[in-house]
Specification:
The chain is α/β, with parallel strands linked by helices. Helices cover about 30% and strands about 20% of the residues.
Length: about 170
C-alpha cells in the first residue's frame, strides 16, 4: 500500500541521466516528475522526455512569467499593458503549447498568480520585479479564461475528486 507520492523535482537544464536518473531514487518509488516553468520555456523538454521514457506524469509545478535580457531580469507587471501583452504573446503561448504538445505526460500545472514584489521572501531577482496576477489586465484575463475553459482542463465541480480518482 502506498502512503504518499514521491516527486522528482529538478531544476530544468540538469542532465537527468548524469545524476543517475531515477536510479538514485528508485524508479518504483517516484510517482511524478516536476519542473519549474519561469523564463526557461522549452528547456523543460528534457524533463518531459525523461518522464515519458520512465512512464511518469509531469507536473509543471511552478509557472509564472519571467523575462530576461543580457542576464538581467526584466520587470513583469501586468498592470502595465505593454508587459501584459508581451506575456500574452510570448510566455503564455509557450506554456500552453508545452501542455498541448505533451498531453501524454503533462498532467498538472500550477500557475503562480501573485504580486511577488510585496512578499518579503521574494525580494531578490527574478521575483522582486514580478507581479504575475492575471486579473490585473482585462485582455490577459480574458485570454487566460478562454484557454482554461477548454475541456482538457479540469474544473471545480461536485464530481472533481471522483473524476480524478477514477481516470
Amino acid at each position: 500500500m502506498k502512503y504518499f507520492t514521491i516527486y522528482l523535482l529538478l531544476y530544468v537544464g540538469q542532465d537527468l541521466e548524469a545524476i543517475g536518473g531515477l536510479d538514485n531514487y528508485g524508479d518504483k518509488y517516484v510517482d511524478w516528475c516536476a519542473y519549474s516553468f519561469f523564463s526557461r520555456g522549452l528547456d523543460g523538454q528534457s524533463m518531459i522526455d525523461f518522464a515519458r521514457s520512465h512512464q511518469k506524469p509531469v507536473f509543471i509545478a511552478e509557472a509564472t512569467p519571467v523575462f530576461e535580457a543580457d542576464l538581467l531580469t526584466l520587470e513583469t507587471d501586468f498592470d502595465i499593458p505593454e508587459q501584459a501583452e508581451k506575456a500574452k504573446k510570448e510566455w503564455f503561448p509557450l506554456l500552453f503549447k508545452t501542455i498541448a504538445d505533451n498531453p501524454d505526460v503533462v498532467k498538472a500545472i500550477s500557475y503562480i498568480n501573485v504580486d511577488w514584489r510585496i512578499q518579503p521572501m521574494w525580494q531578490t531577482p527574478p521575483f522582486n520585479r514580478c507581479d504575475s496576477r492575471i486579473q490585473q489586465n482585462e485582455k490577459l484575463s480574458a485570454f487566460w479564461k478562454k484557454e482554461i475553459a477548454k475541456n482538457k482542463y479540469l474544473k471545480l465541480t461536485d464530481k472533481l475528486y471522483e473524476t480524478l480518482w477514477h481516470n
